[in-house]
Amino acid sequence: MGNEIVVGLHFYQPPREASHPSLRQISTDPENKNWTEIIELECYKPLAEEGILNKASFDIYQSLLLQLEKIDPATAKIYQKSMRENGIGEAFIHPILPDLSTQDKQIVISAGSNRFREITGQSPKIFWPPETAIDTETLCVLAENGYEAFICAPEQIVQSDGSSSDNQPTQIALPTGQNIIAIPFDRSISSKLAFDGKTNADRFSDDFIKPKQDQKTGKTIVAWTDAETFGHHFKNGDKFLDYLLNSSLPSIGLYPVSINRYLDSMPQIKKGKIVERSAWSCSHGDLVRWNNSCDCSWGYDSSWKRPFTESLEKNNQEISEILQRHLGSNYPLKVSSQFYELYAHPERVNSPEKALIAAKISALIARTSCATFFATPNVSGKINLLYAYQSILYLSDSGLTSSANVLKDKLFKDLSKINYPGNQETALSTLLKMISL
Ligand SMILES: [Zn+2]
């Protein structure tokens, strides 16, 4: 080989609105915009129509695909059709997996692969972890669910022989006796694809990709970046990508290949270990960006993050205990197998058991990582509050009104104690008032 490149795109948007019928009119965006609709026109639709998904590999979160199905069903179909050859698996929703309990990891990972199977007729083999956040337990759950490999950043993998992990597939031994392959992307090409200008694809491949072509070891180059880069962050970035894949790369002798084909024909693999609790977008260790303070908050006071995530996790755990009592210890299986149906079709939540399952699904969506990715909760923290509230509404719908009231009081008490930065208090308390917390 040595003449192949995997260009991977990560497609993701958080849910924009709640699914419970009584909450649907509430917008979570500070300016009342539907960003998924905006990005769909700038990026998702042109990428699909230009045939990019036939050449690029991609992961698309179900929380986005469900919105596309409503906004533009024809475009959603193109994504679904392309998933079979070029798609990889995901966790249905986007929480920091190492921060979830074992059962919750199982629920979201198997809900994602169930849906992938329904769409493509086959099981996903490669996984994109939300924020590429990993720990050993997450990898064990992935292997149990049939995954053979996952994508991550090179900084997250340490080679046994001390060599660089950049673009180096690596075998990770798990405590269960199984193995899983880490596929760290090429850091410099991935970063250039994300942040460099999108005006001249020929120059881009000559300057940045050609020097990396390693004819001697015959290594396939793997680059992966946010899909929204092409058309949303960079106007006409979709056309740049189209030209790069179809003309510039072939002209330097590099041909785009599916990540799934690459896995099937992977050459000898080195051995190594993961950096526990690491991710691609925070280098400060222990996944601190999402649950405490670090320099990723550009000097802003991010002390709100810890109590914010703790209160949502406490609510999520209390709901797990209720499901355990009422549905038994195999409740995770019941939740994962009905995750898509009850989330995408809330009208089918028509029994106390289904309302309990919908409560758990909502409490998990309230753990979506975007709320604490940014320095302030105003960017997307409302989504989490809305879903936490929805979990309590569904609990009440299941007939457990007094438990629901207890949880509502606890959540409100916890959330009101938090010292939100700047004028967030107003934004968040408006939402709390709207949902009568
Ligand atoms: Zn950080």
Question: What distinguishing features does this structure have?
Answer:
single chain; 5-stranded parallel beta sheet; 6-stranded mixed beta sheet; 437 residues; 7-stranded beta/alpha barrel; 11 strands; binds zinc ion; alpha/beta; globular
Question: Secondary-structure blueprint of this entry?
Answer:
Elements: E1 4-11, H1 35-49, E2 57-60, H2 62-71, H3 73-86, E3 87-88, H4 102-120, E4 126-127, H5 136-144, E5 149-152, E6 157-159, E7 170-173, E8 179-184, H6 187-195, H7 201-209, E9 221-226, H8 237-251, E10 255-256, H9 259-264, E11 270-274, H10 288-291, H11 305-327, H12 331-344, H13 352-365, H14 370-373, H15 381-397, H16 401-417, H17 424-434
Parallel strand pairs: 1-2, 1-9, 1-10, 2-3, 4-5, 5-8, 7-11
Antiparallel strand pairs: 6-11, 7-8
Describe the overall structure.
The chain is α/β, with parallel strands linked by helices and 437 residues long. It has two domains: 278 residues, 7-stranded beta/alpha barrel (Alpha-Beta Barrel), CATH 3.20.110; 146 residues, no CATH class. It contains 17 helices and eleven strands. It has a six-stranded mixed sheet with strand order 4-5-8-7-11-6. α2 packs antiparallel against α3, α13 packs antiparallel against α15 and α15 runs antiparallel to α16. The longest helix has 23 residues. It is globular and about 65 Å long. The model has no long low-confidence stretch (mean pLDDT 93). The chain binds zinc ion. Zinc ion (ZN) binds next to α10. The site of zinc ion has 7 residues, from α10.
